Amino acid sequence: MDPNAYIPEMHAGTLELSEHSALFFWHVASQFQVSKPRTILWLNGGPGCSSMDGALMEIGPFRFSEDGSRLIENVDGWNKYANLLFLDQPLGTGYSKAEESLGANNLSIVSQNVVLFLQKYFEVFPEQKTHELYIAGESYAGQYIPYIYKAIRDTDPSIKVAGLLLDNPWIDPAHQYTSYMPFLFKHNLVSGEQDKKAIQQLHDECVVELTSLDVVYSDNTVCNRVSIYALQHFDNARTCFNVYNIELTDTYSSCGMNWPPGVEFMSPYLSRSDVRRAFNVKEDGRWTECSTSVSASFHNSKSPSAVSLLPEILEEIPVLLLVGELDYICNIDGLRSMVDNLQWGGGIGLRDSSETRLVIRGSDVGAVTSARNLTFVNLSKGSHMTPYELPYETRSVLYGFSGIAPTYNTSMEFDAPPTKQEKEKMISDAMYRAYYQAGFVALGVVGGVLLVVVLVSWGTGARSTFTFSGLMNALLHAAPLKNKPLGEYVNLQTFRRFGRPETIHEEDEEDEGLP
């Protein structure tokens, strides 16, 4: 790890929902304090895929080095001016634990579990309950997030949600399934008249299937056949296009499952006993990116697709739809079709709103259309995981949406770095957190090991210290050197930071780019 890299304040562990079930979280504090703190609750999709994907490959403070040997700073992480809260859910996903038998699962059960988690989380961290809370995620999180918001509103309105961010969401199967054939043809992902006729036939069968249903659910076997055929007949038996980025190809039948670069490092790293110990989870066991048992528990789930909740939600809070144009699986055409047919706020879709070009750092990166609490942003070079390729651009859009970007205006231009005056306009009380809050905190990132030595584990009760006698003794009895390594102990290099917070005011950090 670069010794000059910024190491944020972090907390990680599990919160018990019952005797045999618990949800894992990783909280990353914002690098800068602002007058109105914001927390981004991030969820990955699947269903059953760990939010560590988002943490270590998209928006978090670290990413893997090219060879996977260590963690490096993600200078465009979303934690610059916002707190991040990564949550492994549903139960049984990632580091979260579940009953031995998951049984049936549905979106209502999942959303109630997230509400219960948040209630317990705010018992442990009551100071964070006053933050503006934004719920964000990608892919199948497009099903989770509207249900979670509704559950929060209906069961615990004391938890204030300021907005929703849906990144390439799977939210409206009726319009998204029927977008596959035209998207395939438009991008020449199918060649040969015979294959086109076959896909047309499968598409027609999908339309018949969807129109025969009183309620459209999030998964449909008949409609999945369009994609299966297209991938099987893309080029040859050994090659297919990447369903998450159509500019790329992959070996059949992976078709994107080997992407993005770095995904191959996730399981070996997160399965290591020292890493698991650092995250305050059981040290033995293997971390799995996506749980087949969780996914299977959602098969035949009878929860209506989340698009049915959007009109009501848009009457209450703003929603950002962030769409990468290179994604096939949750493609822009299907999401545009969904919006065009959605009725809310006395209108239909965004038909009466003009599109504005999105310019970031002097480059045209996409377009924005907005009306009646819905903002639709399409990024021309974005994939299914838009923050992976475009971390700065997506962070800029998020900050604009949440009200902390310096030049989020009618021209939709973001300049970098901003002037001092722009920063002063954006935040009135910014300060750099050079040290953590009063009291002992230690953290290290060495040899690829992320060590969160705010070592805490939580059950249903209050915060308690998690003691590893050897490591903690080494830390507590070492000579205090400000932000300097104390040496190695059990192969983990550690740092000690203590004392009252020291602040550097905005005029003292002119070189910092923002957002």
UniProtKB/TrEMBL annotation:
Signal peptide: none annotated. Keywords: Apoptosis, Carboxypeptidase, Glycoprotein, Golgi apparatus, Hydrolase, Membrane, Protease, Signal, Transmembrane, Transmembrane helix. It is found in: Golgi apparatus, trans-Golgi network membrane. GO terms for cellular component: trans-Golgi network. It comes from the Eukaryota. Its EC number is 3.4.16.-. Its main location: Golgi. GO terms for molecular function: serine-type carboxypeptidase activity. It catalyses: Preferential release of a C-terminal arginine or lysine residue. The chain crosses the membrane at residues 434-458. GO terms for biological process: apoptotic process; proteolysis. It holds the Pfam family Peptidase_S10. It is a single-pass type I membrane protein. Belongs to the peptidase S10 family. This is Carboxypeptidase. The lineage of its organism: Eukaryota, Fungi, Dikarya, Ascomycota, Saccharomycotina.
